[in-house]
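Q: Entry one of two.
A:
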Amino acid sequence: MCQPGLSVEEFIEASPDFTASVFQAVHDHLVVVDRAHDDGQLIVDPLATKVLFKNGPTFCILDVKTKWVAVGFSLRRRLESGRLSRKVTDYGSKFFHVVNVDDPELIDDEFREWLAEAYSHGDEPAQAAAGAGDPMVPDDVDVVIAPPPR
């Protein structure tokens, strides 16, 4: 059963005090990332204890806990970082990461890069812009196809 959606204001009002500043730090960055895309379609979907960020599929979830916000995001690679709060979970070709955030200062440049990558559906931003990362597009072709013998 789906939970009824809330407005951002209703979500923040019903959440612990630390939630608003963490939400704002993540939201503001994702708005900037979204504006950088010509077809940006950021959807912010607040629920009772979570906020889903979508641009098609959900790529980031803010899950409000008692003392922090668990910020979860999916990438096409497994991060190796001491900042991760839970075991990285793999789902096919993607990896779901979670970082517990109780202070908006933790949303630093490194974290913002991860969020931008998640916005691009897990593709690293430089690769996504260049079209790399698609397994159907060869990145290095060393085969010469000769005409058939006569």
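Q: Entry two of two.
A:
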Amino acid sequence: MGFSESVLAAMIGATATIGAAIFQLVIHWRKQSGDRRVAAKGGGFRSLLWMLTLMFASAVGGFAYSEYLGQERRDETHQLREQLQQQLATLASSTAKLEQVRLNAQSVADAQARQAEERRRGADGVEGLVQLPACKGTRGSAVCTENDAQRLAVCAVVPTSAQVTEVQLYTRPEDSQQSWSESRVEASQDAGKARFVDAPFERAHAEGSKEVCVTFAHWAADKGRSARILVKYSI
């Protein structure tokens, strides 16, 4: 079984003290020999008692000293353990705060990126597109009038917080090779038995979004027609 440094030091000190006492007693006994042999018997007995007392005191003192050193070492260890626990708690708290700061920064960065993307999308415009078949007159007639017109809302989905800045209107026959940029019309403009009627309006869509719509009317009996809107907005 191993001993700590403090216990070993106490044992060495006690051994040295006992050894020195025994040596002194031996010298003393030699001086008491000769003519004083009888008296020396009583003195030797007392010396023996003193030696035993000294050995006991040395052992007690060594044990007490070793306990004192051990207690001091235990106190130091306890203090170091408490300091280490405090440092670990501080480190854990700091780590948690840094992680929260990182998450907050990431959330802010993500929100800013989404907002920037939404601004770009709003500046480019969001499209709404429908296709209507050729009009069929009442009672099987091949002739359609505006009263027979098919009416349909052409809608584009934008964020709920969007402020609509412009709604562009487009229409062209279904087999037309004309580009959309060349097919732009104004509200209520006759585009060959087709037109956008009424002003743009908004209505609820899914959570966080809404629809911007314009009603389109089409009454041409010879062919179908495509209608398109482009909604631009700001955030």
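A: Comment on entry two: Residues 82 and 88 are 10 Å apart (CA to CA). The two ends are 79 Å apart (CA to CA).
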